[in-house]
Predict the 3D structure of the following.
Amino acid sequence: MSMPYIYVTRTLTDSAMADVRGLGRPVVTGGDEPPGRDDLLRHAQGAVAVVCTLTERIDAEFLDAAGPGLRIVANTAVGYDNIDVPAATERGVRVTNTPGVLDGATADLTMALILAAARRVLDGDRLIRERTPWIWGPRMMLGLDLSAGATLGIVGYGRIGRAVARRARAFDMPILATPTSTPLTGDDGQGVTFVELPELLSRSDVVTLHCPLTPATRHLIDAQALARMKSTAVLVNTARGGIVDESALVEALRSGGIASAALDVFEGEPRVDPALADLPNTVLTPHIGSAGTATRERMCGLSVANVAEVLAGRDPVTPVN
Ligand code: GLV
């Protein structure tokens, strides 16, 4: 295609697809599935803008395949560990993400996972589906009472961590969080005690992860960190799989080091370690933290808005670099 085009790696929502077509440039679109690496590199050639998702690795090879005409890579996700940002900056390519629009949805799913793990929702569901005979009993299927003073530990007190804290306050949970460099506004700090990670791990009944995946946070939750947690504790991850050392987690779940884990993200996504699926004390969902209809409209709309701004010679709405 001779005129520089917009490459949308995966089909976005209908309204975002209409918006991108309204930008007055040719549009090349992948399908519902992620493109293979060869297709990704081939479609990069001659693109002026790329709208991608977290399933595409955008690295120096990709940027070089795109060539000097590429102006923006718009990631349709808040996390951008799939993108080599320094490589893009070196080549003068703007990178954008979708912060702010998915905090509520991700915090909602986090609460769903916390509640499911603490109150054994999946155990109960399995019991009934397996047609196991049951009757109400004073000692039957007891779990962790969130509202009886269970402490929530939030690792990463950014936008999503704060949205989780707002919800946890309604459950009367004492809240710990790791220190944040982002200034607190409004009631952000209300009822939250800031402590370093080792103390948070040893004091929390529920530990939930909301930091980005960076070299500094890769395997932040390793065997040593898991050993600090209470044997009755629940670990929740709706951030990125790589923050947790998954084999150490399997070991901790097997040995009773911690009580349970609820995971929406995995180290080798979309592969899920079969050991996690074989354990009875896990709750597993397929990276659906932001998968609300309205949220996806906002995410896709923001990605296209970033492309529109950059192609019009202005600064993007939500720049990463
Ligand atoms: C999803 O995981 C996101 O980063 O938006």
